[in-house]
Every structure is written in structure tokens, then in C-alpha cells.
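User: Can you help me understand a structure? I only have the sequence.
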Amino acid sequence: MKKHRLLMLMFASATLLFASCGKEAENSPSYDPPGTVYVHIQNDYKTKVKLWPDTEKDAPKLCIDDANNFISSSYYTSGGRSWYTINFCDVGDVRGLGDIGVNSYSGRTDRAAVIPGHGYIADCVDGYNTGLLARLYVVDYIKNALGEIIGAEVKYQSPWEWESENI
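Assistant: Let's start by predicting it. Here is the structure, written out as C-alpha cells:
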């Protein structure tokens, strides 16, 4: 009888152990892929992040406006050449960069609300086509001593070539 109780106790303990491990894995942050960059961006139009380092010197950069939206530092080139900008796609609530996939790439816009826990796909557009992609993840807001939002902590991966991923 004591052996039976001991076996039941061990079985119950093992069941609880494995059940708790599953919940932790389900709620744990997604992995950060190789090449992940972590930046603080203020919502002042002055903090600009060049997402695609191998592009032209004046390629558009990622900014956050005073309304806490991702925007592009768009520009128009001289001599009738095409314009450049960044389009954004908010893929919603994700656990991290590793959860952002092309299967949720629709509804592009020229600005997107910065929301902690949300993932985004950024697409550099040159007026004729798209092709340079980056994925972004908002970790949290940056706040001042008064609790006002003054920017965001952002992780990004660029360039991001989704064709090579198994999504």
C-alpha cells in the first residue's frame, strides 16, 4: 500500500512538473535571430535608424513621431529619380522577432502605431518596387520622470530575407 501511494505521489509530481514546463515555454519570449539589433528611438524626429546599412547614403530611416507612430524619414531624389519611403505592416501581438513571418504581411501603410509587444514588417519602397525588408519588435515604451512616453525600445533584424525561412 505504501508503494502504491509513493508511486501515485511520484506520478502526480511528474505531471505537475511537465505541465508547468509547457506553460513556461508557451509564454516565453521568442528567440532573437542572428543579426538582431536593439535600439532606443526617441519620438522627436531627430533619432533616425538606418535599417538597411548597405543602401544609399540618403535611404529612408526609421523614426518615431510625436504621436508615437513609426514613420519614415522619406525623401525625394533630384533629377526626376524615384522617391524612397518605408511602409509598415503591424502584424499584431507577438512574443519577439522570431514570431514575425511573411504569412501576416498585409495592410501596409506609411505609419504604424508603436505598441509594446507588437511586431512589424518594414518595407523600403523606391517608387517602383519593394524588396528590402526588416522586421521590428517593440519591447517597451521609454518614459521620462513624469511617466510621459518619449520613445520606444525596439529590436530589429535587417536585412530580412523571408524567402529562406520555413514559414
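Now, to help you interpret it: The longest strand covers residues 130-143. Residues 76-82 have pLDDT under 50 and may be disordered. Let me know which part you'd like to focus on.
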